[in-house]
Design goal:
The protein has 408 residues and is α/β, with parallel strands linked by helices. 46% of the residues lie in helices and 14% in strands. It comes from Zygosaccharomyces bailii (strain CLIB 213 / ATCC 58445 / CBS 680 / BCRC 21525 / NBRC 1098 / NCYC 1416 / NRRL Y-2227).
């Protein structure tokens, strides 16, 4: 034992001012510069990218690439949770001890569904090894100066997921984050997160559990819908935040400059943050990926800029990034806003209420917005709606069959 009295779940949540809008841990994506930007746009808690515990504990180069003295800085990067993936409790503890004085908690990743996690035997591929999961969390709980938390995915069965969540909490996790998708739901197979299962967990776990929900967040209204439906303490956003940091910036979509910020302004602001924090190698490594996501709706209309961005890498001087990408984007958007019909064109149009409970928005390509991956030419939003329609039709057919039997 450390001999230091650690704060527990609800006490820890109060200590960091009860954050409700959380930047998810994302591999190579939720690094320092992005966390700073996200906090400016409304995020109230951020997680680091998922770090590989054994590499972090044993490789100075890996640590240098992933972590610097500015990470977890009290003035610019708190509250902060540092996330690790692991399958060895000793390496996990060694890694966690290296950061425990620069964060508010350490999180165990039990949700990563990618092939690399399967190969490395971590993340969601520990879901069937409950004794190992318990051992990993308990090792940190018993030996760290800061609390341990955990992020999980769900099983197809609600009851099994509940027992799994209880195991995680029994081991010592002080926050529980539930990503409402199965291990198999990833990439093009993502689909809708299951809010019903997340709600079931919330209702059947101890009420003092600090409980975060993750999944299905596209617009600010989705945040309030999730909080109201699940009764969770906070929501966590991954891709929604990556493609549009403005998702956290307002309670609704009425202020387009806050919720759907112009791509030129976000790109410039993010770039200036990277410049101002050059000690963060991770931010340099992540810049290209972030700019592709920020500019995703814009680049198909300006393929010359897309080609320039594609040609760059982390070793390119920052002035080259500025001259080839940032400045050209600003020039093009200035031209767009110089058009006489800009007031008419720069409109946000809300669609009809969908079966999943929210609405889609039509947003001009020069503004940040959610991304729906196309599969066979059909985007995820349309696939989700069609699936829900089919489910509703099947349910209705079943009701009619029951009514017919009753009449007979």
């Amino acid at each position: 034992m450390t001999g230091i009295k650690k704060v527990r779940g609800r006490e820890l949540f109060d200590k960091i001012d009860r954050p409700q809008k959380i930047v998810a841990p994302m591999v190579d994506q939720s690094e320092l510069a992005w966390r700073i930007l996200s906090r400016r746009y409304g995020a109230t808690l951020a997680y680091t990218p998922m770090f590989h515990a054994k590499l972090f504990a044993t490789s100075p180069k890996y640590r240098k690439d992933m972590w610097c003295e500015l990470d977890g800085d009290e003035k610019i990067d708190r509250p902060l949770v540092v996330q690790f993936c692991a399958n060895d409790a000793d390496y996990l503890l060694q890694a966690a001890k290296l950061v425990q004085d620069k964060c508010d908690a350490v999180d165990l990743n039990l949700g990563c569904p990618q092939g690399i996690a399967k190969k490395g035997h971590y993340g969601s591929f520990l879901m069937d090894e409950w004794d190992l999961v318990h051992k990993l969390i308990r090792k940190l709980h018993d030996n760290l100066d800061v609390p341990v938390t955990a992020k999980i995915r769900i099983f197809p069965e609600k009851e099994k997921t509940l027992e799994y969540a209880k195991t995680v909490l029994d081991a010592g996790a002080q926050f529980l984050t539930v990503h409402g998708r199965l291990r198999e739901q990833k990439g093009q197979k993502s689909g809708l997160a299951d809010w019903d299962t997340i709600k079931y967990l919330r209702e059947n776990l101890p009420q003092d559990t600090v409980f975060f929900a993750n999944g299905n967040l596209l617009y600010p209204e989705d945040i309030s819908r999730c909080l109201d439906f699940i009764k969770c303490d906070a929501i966590m956003s991954a891709e929604g935040n990556l493609y549009n940091p403005g998702i956290f910036n307002a309670e609704d979509c009425s202020d387009k400059d806050k919720v759907f910020p112009r791509v030129d302004k976000i790109a410039r602001e993010y770039f200036e943050i990277v410049k101002a924090h050059e000690a963060s190698q991770a931010s340099h490594l992540a810049m290209k990926s972030h700019l592709f996501k920020i500019l995703r709706p814009f680049l198909p209309n300006h393929t010359d800029i897309r080609a320039s961005l594609a040609s760059l890498n982390a070793k390119a001087p920052l002035e080259v990034w500025e001259s080839k990408v940032i400045a050209p984007v600003e020039k093009e958007v200035r031209a767009i806003f110089g058009r006489p019909d800009i007031e008419e064109k720069d409109q946000i149009v809300k669609g009809e209420l969908e079966l999943w409970g929210g609405s889609y928005y039509k947003v001009p390509y020069w503004r940040c917005q959610p991304y729906f991956r196309p599969v066979n030419g059909v985007t995820a939003d349309k696939r989700v709606v069609e699936n829900l329609k089919r489910r509703a039709e099947i349910s209705l057919e079943g009701t009619h069959e029951k009514e017919a039997k009753i009449e007979v």
